[in-house]
Amino acid sequence: MDQELSFGELLHRVRLGETAAAEALVRRYESAIRIAVRTRLLDPALRQHFDSVDICQSVLASFFLRAATGQFDLEDSAQLVALLSKMAQNKLAMHARRHLRARRDLRRVVSLAESSIDSPSSEPQPDQVAIGRETLDRAYAMMDPQVRDIADRRVDGDGWDDIAMQLGGTAEGRRKQYHRAIERIAVTLKLD
């Protein structure tokens, strides 16, 4: 499936929640996320504590939630790579700030390489897919009916102008309403 789908079709299927499409997206773009993390993870103390795989999984969880609710308007793979790279940079910075703010001694933390935990594969595991589906279901349950309607219309491929025409208001107003609701949900679900 990975090579046969165009970018637009792949993104549409990801929005519909298709597991095969999500796996194909991970195969295509996970390395870009990991590179973005590795190029910014220069502090040896932080490198011992964080692994690019951990940040990558966090980025993908946030991306899939937001993509499934239609938050992103991406036209090509270059925009997706730029978005995922920026999300990875932000996640890494957030995690680093959290640890520094807590004044943890990162030198005492055992590195992931020294731990007995096997490194995860790049393929999403069934439990990760189930957790992602559960997170998406929780996000939908937290949406008020109007925001859920916007999410469903975005998943169907409706643009902001169409949504504003159908629901009233302006395209920019509906986009902001939706993005603010998704941000609140992401904070509540601790995705950021």
Detail the topology: elements first, then pairings:
Elements: H1 7-15, H2 19-40, H3 44-49, H4 52-68, H5 77-101, H6 126-142, H7 145-155, H8 160-167, H9 171-188
Number of helices: 9
SS-based structural class?
mainly alpha
Give a count of the beta strands, DSSP E runs of length 2 or more.
0
Specify Rg, calculated over alpha carbons.
Answer: 18 Å
Mean pLDDT: 76
Order of helices and strands: HHHHHHHHH
Distance between the termini: 30 Å
**Silhouette:** globular
Helix content: 55-70%
Main beta sheet strand tally, sense and closure: none
Strand content: under 5%
Q: What number of domains?
A: 1
Weakly predicted, low-confidence segments: 104-120
Which terms would index this structure?
192 residues; mainly alpha; 9 helices
Summarize the structure.
The protein is mostly helical and 192 residues long. Helix content is 69%, strand content 0%. Helix 2 packs across helix 4 (52-68), helix 4 (52-68) packs across helix 5 (77-101) and helix 8 (160-167) packs across helix 9 (171-188).
Commentary on this structure:
- This protein has 192 residues and is an all-alpha fold.
- It has one domain.
- It has 9 helices and no strands.
- Helix 2 crosses helix 5.
- The longest helix has 25 residues.
- The chain is globular and about 55 Å long.
- The two termini are 30 Å apart.
- About 9% of the residues have low confidence.
